[in-house]
Request: fold
Amino acid sequence: FVCLKELRTRHSTLSFSSSSSRSSSSSSSYNKTQQRLPGAIIIGVRKGGTRALLEMLNLHPDVEVAKAEVHYFNVEEHYRRGLDWYRSQMPLTSSGQLTLEKTPGYFASPPVPERVWNMNPAVRLLLIVRDPAVRLISDYTQVLHNRLTRHKPYQPLEELLLHNGQIDPGYKALQRSLYYHHLTQWLDVFPKKQIHVVDGDALIRDPFPELRKAERFLKLSPRINPDNFYLNTTKGFYCLLSDGHDKCLDESKGRPHAPLSAQVLRKLCRYFEQPNKMFFEMIGRSFSWC
Ligand SMILES: Nc1ncnc2c1ncn2[C@@H]1O[C@H](COP(=O)(O)OS(=O)(=O)O)[C@@H](OP(=O)(O)O)[C@H]1O
Reply:
């Protein structure tokens, strides 16, 4: 279906009138497409379900997404290239459409909130979170996978996570799960109403309700339906259906997680209790994590 969307965009570049079910933005016979800066960004969290959220929002006829992570605001070399470079990474859209990009690295990168504000203080931000202990294990599993693929040595998770039998606060993957800490930096810059929190665990269990809430936040007409999703029992995750085409996320999403003993997991959950509470207070809702 991604290809179909691309075809439709090219058609509108060539000024074909659209006979498909696309909404008002593509209904005029001449609707010039161009690359635009994003109106919304999925800022994180890493391993929270950012790819699934992007692909699912891309089902909406008024949304076009940057396929690859752009890493504009968090990588100095990219940032120095300026906004024209950033814009050139974006998909073609017609005037009524929303441009969306996702870079999970934005959430925990200190200079990013102000840089995003400087680009567009009205940009809408989506933050997808997941149980921070599970997120950490997923984060470790990805790094482990990369190291194994490159035949590099790796340390077991417990070795990285514990120092003298206690949780080591210096472990990077642990720090990335301190959502309240990173969100504080965003709320120093953006008003709360501009950041929508998506429940990443709920998105895995049943994507549609989370998508409907995201559509509302993005002021999109409700066009994504429960029929756009089916549970792929082999993969154990929901896959996407659109225009008779189906698509599952690739095998890097939904990998079996590296093991962690029940005892260390309990320690980890205890460690996250307080930071989670602070995060819940900050966003005015809670999740049943750990
Ligand atoms: N529908 C569907 N299909 C497959 N995977 C899904 C889906 N919805 C959410 N997820 C979860 O997304 C997790 C990966 O998160 P991200 O895409 O944010 O990862 S990354 O930071 O971009 O690497 C990934 O984490 P792991 O299960 O740990 O691999 C998935 O659990």
